[in-house]
């Protein structure tokens, strides 16, 4: 009932243990707290919180417009609704190294299990758009060092994302990944890889866990979880997938209303009311204190909408 039964500290331990296992971890992207509960219900290992999704949720493009306050606040709302570890996209860290340090501690306080910071210039842009620019190695290294030094929980995961592959090629990505690992990164997120062979090349270059991004309509192919595990990936994210599915379904529903004046033909595509109530765990709220409020009406009140009736029966 209410929020997660697992502490943030224990979620971080679980994330570390999962990354140390022989199995790849699957982290679908949650676009709101309810979808995080669904991810847990479906048996996945963790929840990813995408910066692109957080921007889109505000009706904004993914070009560095969100603030630390917005990202931390929404991330906390999502992370606290699930017992699973949650990793968040912290863009470029929201400023210089001291700002990066503050970002880390703010995200720790928000209950996240980890985060990643990228090496793009600020303002950044979506990793699968053209025209990206990356910072020099010294700036990228300082960001990761600041993040690693600032955390108070040693199990809080500091992941380094590098976008340099699309700018300067694979060899530059290998070099940057090694530099970021040496700077203290607990894991590497090589963005926009061109093939499975490129993932394998990064795998051979570093010893820390590696994340693979399976975002639709991007620069790279969509590989299966098994394919990625076979080339040594430790974690795979599906960052915007649930949002795209939900928005696609919503658009089709609106079209049906416009064309037919009814959604009766789309009922099979909807989450049933009973399934929603099960996901929200209505029953536990009712059990919590049925003497106060158990979602039933006093049978002696014939007109429950009447303010006078409610007053007379102390409801």
UniProtKB/TrEMBL annotation:
Pfam family, one: PEP_mutase
Transmembrane regions: none
Cofactor: Mg(2+)
Gene3D superfamilies, per the entry: Phosphoenolpyruvate-binding domains
Enzyme class (EC, first level): lyase
EC number: 4.1.3.30
Reaction(s) the record says it catalyses: 3-hydroxybutane-1,2,3-tricarboxylate = pyruvate + succinate; (2S,3R)-3-hydroxybutane-1,2,3-tricarboxylate = pyruvate + succinate
Assigned keywords, A-Z: Lyase, Magnesium, Metal-binding
Annotated CDD domains: ICL_PEPM (cd00377)
Swiss-Prot/TrEMBL GO biological process terms: propionate catabolic process, 2-methylcitrate cycle
GO MF annotations in UniProt: metal ion binding; methylisocitrate lyase activity
Pathway: Organic acid metabolism; propanoate degradation
The keyword Metal-binding is assigned to this record: yes
Family: Belongs to the isocitrate lyase/PEP mutase superfamily. Methylisocitrate lyase family.
Summary of the function given for this chain in its UniProt record: Involved in the methylcitric acid cycle. Catalyzes the cleavage of 2-methylisocitrate to yield pyruvate and succinate.
The protein's name in its UniProt record: Methylisocitrate lyase
Lineage: Bacteria, Bacillati, Actinomycetota, Actinomycetes, Micrococcales
């Amino acid at each position: 009932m209410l929020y997660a039964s697992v502490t943030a500290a224990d979620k971080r331990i679980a994330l570390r243990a999962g990354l140390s296992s022989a199995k790849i971890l699957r982290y679908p992207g949650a676009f709101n707290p309810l979808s995080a509960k669904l991810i847990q219900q479906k048996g996945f290992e963790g929840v990813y919180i995408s910066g692109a999704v957080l921007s889109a949720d505000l009706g904004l493009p993914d070009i560095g417009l969100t603030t630390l306050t917005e990202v931390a606040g929404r991330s906390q709302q999502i992370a606290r609704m699930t017992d699973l570890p949650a990793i968040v996209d912290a863009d470029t860290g929201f400023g210089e190294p001291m700002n990066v340090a503050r970002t880390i501690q703010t995200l720790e306080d928000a209950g996240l299990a980890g985060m990643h910071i990228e090496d793009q210039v600020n303002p950044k842009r979506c990793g699968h758009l053209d025209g990206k620019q990356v910072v020099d190695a010294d700036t990228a290294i300082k960001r990761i060092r600041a993040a690693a030094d600032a955390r108070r929980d040693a199990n809080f995961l500091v992941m380094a994302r590098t976008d340099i592959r699309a700018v300067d090629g694979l060899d530059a990505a290998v070099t940057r990944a090694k530099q970021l690992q040496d700077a203290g990164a607990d894991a590497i997120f090589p963005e926009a890889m061109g093939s499975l062979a490129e993932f394998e090349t990064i795998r051979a270059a570093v010893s820390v866990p590696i994340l693979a991004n399976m975002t639709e309509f991007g620069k790279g192919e969509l590989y299966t979880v098994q394919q990625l595990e076979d080339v040594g990936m430790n974690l795979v994210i599906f960052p915007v997938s649930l949002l795209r599915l939900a928005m696609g379904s919503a658009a089709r529903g609106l079209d049906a209303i416009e064309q037919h004046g009814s959604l009766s033909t789309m009922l099979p595509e909807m989450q049933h009311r009973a399934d929603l109530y099960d996901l929200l765990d209505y029953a536990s709220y009712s059990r919590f204190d049925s003497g106060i409020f158990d979602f039933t009406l006093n049978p002696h009140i014939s007109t429950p909408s009447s303010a006078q009736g409610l007053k007379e029966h102390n409801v």
